[in-house]
Amino acid sequence: MLALGLLLLAVTGAFVGLLIAANLSGGPDYGVTVLGNHIVTLNSLAIFLRESP
Q: Which residues make Cβ contacts (< 8 Å) with residue 29, sequence separation at least 6?
């Protein structure tokens, strides 16, 4: 059971690493607007990794 848990943890880490690597090229920027006020402009990697503006 411990081996299965470690295997799932490793697979999850690899998947997240691949997602980050695939988004390193940047891509389009997206503007975040709340109630008509421009808050911040982020690219897809920043949106994926960002916790709070």
A: 41, 42, 43
